[in-house]
Specification:
Blueprint: E1 2-7, H1 19-22, H2 27-37, E2 42-47, H3 51-61, E3 67-71, H4 80-88, E4 93-97, E5 119-122, H5 127-136
Parallel strand pairs: 1-2, 1-3, 3-4, 4-5
Helix pairs in contact: 3-4
C-alpha cells in the first residue's frame, strides 16, 4: 500500500512553531515511527507553503496512491482550488488537523476540503496522522 502524507503551509515548522498548540514532535521522527508501525505501507512525504505545489502533488498522487493523509493548514479555510483538487482525484483523502479547529477562531470552522474528503480528524495532535493511516488501511 502506498500512502502520501501531504502537509500545507507552516507545517515545515512543526515542533518549533507554537509548541503549546501544536506539540514538539517533528515529521522526520513521525515518518520513522510510521514506517516501523506500518511496515506494509510505503510512505511518501511532501510539504509545501505554496498552494500550486500542493495542488500538483494532489494531482500526481491522486490516481496512483492508495491513500492521502492531508493537512492543508490554513489553506483549509481559504483555498477553493485545493478543495477542487481533492474532489477531482480518485485516491481517498483523510483531512487531518493537529489542533481542534472547532474551538479556534470562527474562520477556521470552514473547510473547503472536508466535503471532498473520506474523513476528517482534528484535535488529537500529531496522533491524528496515525489515526488517518489506520483509517486508510
Amino acid at each position: 500500500m502506498k500512502i502520501m502524507v501531504l502537509n500545507g503551509p507552516n507545517l515545515n515548522l512543526q515542533g518549533i512553531r507554537e509548541p503549546e498548540k501544536y506539540g514538539n514532535g517533528n515529521f522526520d521522527d513521525l515518518m520513522a515511527e510510521w514506517k516501523a508501525t506500518f511496515p506494509e505501507v510505503t510512505f511518501t512525504y511532501f510539504q509545501s507553503n505554496i498552494e500550486g505545489e500542493i495542488i500538483d502533488c494532489l494531482h500526481a498522487a491522486g490516481f496512483s496512491y492508495d491513500g492521502i493523509v492531508f493537512n492543508p493548514g490554513a489553506y483549509t479555510h481559504t483555498s477553493i482550488a485545493i478543495g477542487d483538487a481533492v474532489a477531482a482525484i480518485q485516491t481517498p483523502v483523510i483531512e487531518v488537523h493537529i489542533s481542534n479547529i472547532a474551538v479556534r477562531e470562527s474562520f477556521r470552522h470552514v473547510s473547503y476540503v472536508s466535503a471532498h474528503a473520506k474523513g476528517v480528524i482534528f484535535g488529537f495532535g500529531l496522533k491524528g496522522y496515525a489515526m488517518a493511516i489506520r483509517a486508510l488501511l
